[in-house]
Design brief:
This protein is 31% helix and 24% strand. By secondary structure, it is α/β, with parallel strands linked by helices. It has a domain of 132 residues: GMP Synthetase, Chain A, domain 3, CATH 3.30.300.30. It binds coenzyme A and adenosine monophosphate.
């Protein structure tokens, strides 16, 4: 038996022993009574009875054990032309002072705080300060519109919101404070206080008695100490798209999170204390939470917070510049970032300009790594290129080529094998386990390992309904795929209404709810069509109301604007096909799968259940009109 097989089998056979040993790498105020508590199935809890502090494990313990002068965080911001470094001692100083400032605003253990910040060090400082006090943070991605922020404010009910005057995108300044004010107007819950980091690129007007200036608060604050919390207490809530307009509040606990992420740094990423780890993502996504902030700091690494893009800041050599300048060993980003680089620098000429000798591993996740991008990166970089699969729900990888355990040959299109702790299986819709190469629904046998979500915030029923009810005893991932004869997992895509646009997870159900509010729209459907840069892009199909005399072009423009205002620019909604009717089965189900195939120019079979096959011709013409659908049906019925 190989090393991976041995470790993996043990993690499944003896989770208590396996994770009990892994928990030794974390500092506890009180050891747990039980490593895995299965007394309330299907709710499993890890490290019950244990007490710790997440911020202590990320900062204090390293300062106490000789890493005080090592760089903990590098802020690299090509959009503001700045590089700023923080040693562990300096970062601890900032975090404990900001924790003191929050305490002064009346925030304490168990309260919630929303963090709506661009990619500035203040984001990491605010997250860690919350963790220090046992306050539950909820970071909201800056590309979301006020409406989305308002939904999260109403659900998380924060006492305080932490934001900035502005964010800086490659082409424009984003007025965060304006969006925050709008969101608070829209929300029913009114946070008592806001802390605003004023950036010189656009100063914001502060509302007296509600808004506080970050720098002024910090100047007066006294440092605050760590507060012990239970392993099972929530560390954060991170909202992610579900199948409706109401996002799911993924809850992460303190104990399991610290143990799993600490283990993953060596087990999966082969990155050791003192080395430089860079997740080129955003703190608003789970990758940013786990691998910009928490995991590298738990491990005593140097982490990089990058305020820039893979291209355009200033050129497609941006990533190589950061790697060589800061001696990065491990880079983690989304395939879409690499497709953007490949598009602008297909021959990899910018790669040659930099010394990449420190660089060993490129990890990619967030969407399927298409074989073309894999080969491009592998051939030009000559480094390990590793696809790994995970979800906001799990918080860390489910399948990967675990570099710290045993390196397997890469099979392009596969994210390799299950990570220790995850018992991944493929089922058909009746719950039967499928054999090698049979495509089905990907599930994980319960219990999920530590670090995965124990529930949804304020929505236990939804948690059970969405994830656990379909196949009792299993967690349903909502991804489809297969396992091959060597145990490699191939994740082929979502089987629900979630699409993946530039590595961002979006709900077509939510988009449909928004389109349906347009006064001229009678009926609509949204699908994700393939895109060579962003993986997928949303396309809306609308049927105009009888008697609507508006120019369809105008309605399409209005829908684009509506989506930008309601979800935000990251929805990337730009294409609307106006049709006379939507294709449906005789029982009234919209044939989204067939529409997606037509849009992608794939061969499709006319479903035998369709009420009117002629409608597909109309769909094809409407799609061709907006630049999609190049091929046609095979004409056969299923
Ligand atoms: N704050 C405000 N606006 C944001 C934003 C943020 N944090 N992130 C993106 N946006 C805006 C962009 O400015 C753009 O606005 P525009 O329509 O006015 O131009 C819009 O949202 C779409 O953004 P995006 O899809 O990211 O497109 P892009 O052209 O700006 O960049 C890529 C394309 C591929 C370079 C970029 O998507 C990328 O780097 N992706 C990696 C994704 C990632 O890290 N995912 C996390 C999982 S690991
Ligand atoms: P998110 O919760 O935003 O991280 O999105 C999770 C979803 O992204 C998964 O359910 C998958 O559909 C997709 N995903 C993430 N990583 C991969 C990968 N390596 N291969 C295929 N799909 C992926």
């Amino acid at each position: 038996m190989g090393r991976y097989e041995e470790i993996f089998q043990r993690s499944i056979r003896d989770p208590q022993g396996f994770w009990g040993e892994a928990s030794e790498a974390i500092s506890w105020y009180k050891r747990c009574d039980k490593v895995l508590d299965d007394s309330n199935k299907p709710f499993y809890r890890w490290f019950t009875g244990g007490e710790l502090n997440t911020c202590y494990n990320a900062l204090d313990r390293h300062v106490e054990s000789g890493r005080a002068d090592q760089i903990a965080l590098i802020y690299d911001s090509p959009v503001t032309n700045q590089i700023q470094t923080f040693t562990y001692r300096e970062l601890l100083g900032q975090v404990s002072r900001f924790a003191g400032a929050l305490k002064g605003l009346g925030v304490s253990k168990g309260d919630t705080v929303i963090i709506y910040l661009p990619m500035v060090p203040h984001a990491a400082i605010a997250m860690l300060a919350c963790a220090r006090l046992g306050v539950v943070h909820s970071v909201v991605f800056g590309g979301f519109a006020p409406h989305e922020l308002a939904i999260r404010i109403d659900d998380a009910k924060p006492k305080v919101v932490i934001s900035a005057s502005c964010g800086i995108e490659a082409k424009r300044v984003v007025e965060f404070k304006h969006m925050l004010d709008k969101a608070i107007d829209l929300a029913s819950h009114k946070p008592q206080k806001c802390v605003i980091f004023q950036r010189p690129q656009a100063k914001a007007e502060l509302i007296p008695a509600r808004d506080y200036d970050w720098d002024e608060l910090m100047a007066k604050a006294e440092p605050a100490d760590c507060v012990a919390v239970k392993a099972t207490d929530p560390l954060y809530i991170l909202y992610t798209s579900g199948t409706t307009g109401i996002p799911k509040g993924i809850v992460r606990d303190n104990g399991g999170h610290a143990v799993a992420l600490r283990w993953s740094m060596e087990g999966i990423y082969d990155t050791n204390p003192g080395e430089v780890y860079w997740a080129a993502s955003d703190v608003g996504w789970v990758v940013g939470h786990s691998y910009i902030v928490y995991a590298p700091l738990f491990a005593g690494c140097t982490t990089i917070l990058y305020e820039g893009k893979p291209v355009g800041t200033p050129d497609p050599g941006a990533f190589w510049r950061v790697i060589s300048q800061h001696n990065v060993k491990t880079l983690f980003t989304a395939p879409t970032a690499f497709r953007a680089i490949k598009k602008e620098d297909p021959k990899g000429e910018y790669i040659q300009k930099y010394d990449l000798s420190s660089f060993k591993y490129l990890f990619l996740a967030g969407e399927r790594l298409d074989p073309d991008t894999y080969h491009w990166a592998r051939n030009l970089l000559k480094k390990f290129v590793i696809d790994h699969w995970w979800q906001t729900e799990t918080g860390w990888p489910i399948t990967a080529n675990c570099m710290g355990i045993e390196q397997f040959p890469v099979k392009p299109g596969s994210s390799t094998k299950p990570v220790p702790g995850y018992d991944v299986q493929i089922l058909d819709s009746s719950g039967k386990v499928l054999g090698p190469k049979q495509e089905g629904l990907i599930v994980m046998k319960l219990p999920l390992p530590p670090g995965t979500f124990p529930t949804l915030w304020n929505a236990e029923k939804r948690f059970l309904q969405a994830y656990l009810k379909m196949f009792p005893g299993y967690y349903f991932t909502a991804d489809g795929g297969y396992k091959d004869e060597d145990g490699y997992i191939f994740v082929m895509g979502r089987v629900d209404d979630v699409i993946n646009v530039a590595g961002h997870r979006l709900s077509t159900g939510e988009m449909e709810e928004i389109i349906a509010t347009h006064p001229d729209v009678a009926e609509c459907a949204v699908i994700g069509a393939g895109d060579s840069l962003k993986g997928q892009l949303p396309i809306g199909f609308i049927v105009l109301k009888a008697g609507a005399t508006r120019d369809p072009e105008d309605v399409s423009k209005e829908l684009e604007e509506l989506m930008r205002n309601e979800i935000g620019p990251i929805a990337c909604y730009k294409s609307t096909a106006v049709v006379g009717r939507l294709p449906k089965t005789r029982s009234g189900k919209i044939l989204r799968g067939t529409m997606r195939k037509i849009a992608d120019g794939e061969e499709y079979k006319v479903p035998s259940t369709i009420d009117d096959p002629g409608i597909l011709e109309e769909i094809t013409i409407a799609l061709q009109h907006i630049g999609y659908a190049q091929k046609k049906s095979t004409g056969q019925c299923r």
